[in-house]
């Protein structure tokens, strides 16, 4: 089995946006909740019962073909920083990290699939992919689910579907979500309207750290709320449609901002670049907001093509536990702010300043002055 | 829905700490993530202290009201009446129309077929149509034999 250090060493495709257009939709994620028929749910089980469930679950999960040579560890054998790193990578949930005895994480080596054993449910399995690929994520995960269903006696009721600890997950046990980067809608003050519309059709919108319409780094997560009464296909189809529409709004907003107020856009991106290049102490919130503008700048042509990847890697690497893992020791918040700034400076060291006359993706150059030679 | 703006530290202060966001609905339902209750009395009587109790895991109606979660899959039967109220407004519908665990589908189709054949057999016997009854009995035996069901 894979070691923790090896797992963490190589970022997953979905973390770097490799092979996908992730300028607006960063990642797609599918989660399925499953339970065993004859065992009490983890939150209600005794320590011995949880251990027995884990004994039953673990060989079946580790035996799945994609999990071969993957990472498998009981949570009680991981340090708090290691657990936190997995949380920051979205490979386990905060609730799972808080559990100790009788819980385990089994993660595929490319970190596309991760399975939480004895989380709130006996089994929470998830698939993450870059860009808008909810359907592909579901299909891959569903195949693993089929395989497990042959080996494990799932708790299932023909009328109520998959039985889960919390009735909010009953039925399909499916939570589909996508992480969206929406700086265009935020800067053009349309975000409230868009999110309200999304909420109205029964989908949930959250920031990366919880509820709220304004979020860190202009990152928003959209997901389904209802899991009973609709098929997986219907849920995913609706979500995909809504996310595509929001992404289209975002692209239009970015183009329009550049047309209507290029100075404002160039100023924001230039300032973000300046702070990131020269800050000596920077907290997580400020860093995320500036990295968000670096991402926007990259998409709008202010920077070279690979800046998006650079920004995406930073989004992951400047989080508190990642910083501590990088430093190899526990850090105070002040130390973290200094090390965060240092990492950002070194990563951006060779990034040239923004081109204040960017060329947009469709080849237009809205920032070009009417007459040339004014400089 | 009330809009709040939360940075990381504020979110932690308020207890909204799940970056996956997946447990928000749970939080809204008043559940207690990570709560651990140890059951010492399993297979308890169906009634205890005047309230319902799950015969399989000992979870009580009081527990359900408190944590808005269930103790085991059997609880869904025990607290079926309460479930209707809980599900109302939570989901798009009240019947599962999604995926069925692999293997279970065949079993369900088979069970349904057996049920149908047995009903027809009863009718045939009642009507003293012994020839048809014999045919139906053979068909039922055949299915049972193939699937290892006895009786």
TrEMBL record, chain B:
Question: What InterPro entries is this protein classified in?
Answer: UVR_dom, UVR_dom_sf, YacH
**What residue stretches are annotated with the UVR domain?**
111-146
GO BP field: SOS response; stress response to cadmium ion; stress response to copper ion
For this chain, one GO molecular function annotation is: zinc ion binding
Kindly name one Pfam family recorded for this protein.
UVR
For this UniProt record, give its keywords in alphabetical order, as a comma-separated list.
DNA damage, SOS response
* Xref: PANTHER family: PROTEIN-ARGININE KINASE ACTIVATOR PROTEIN (PTHR38430:SF1)
User: What is this protein identified as?
Assistant: UvrB/UvrC motif-containing protein
Protein species of origin? Luteolibacter ambystomatis
* Organism lineage: Bacteria, Pseudomonadati, Verrucomicrobiota, Verrucomicrobiia, Verrucomicrobiales
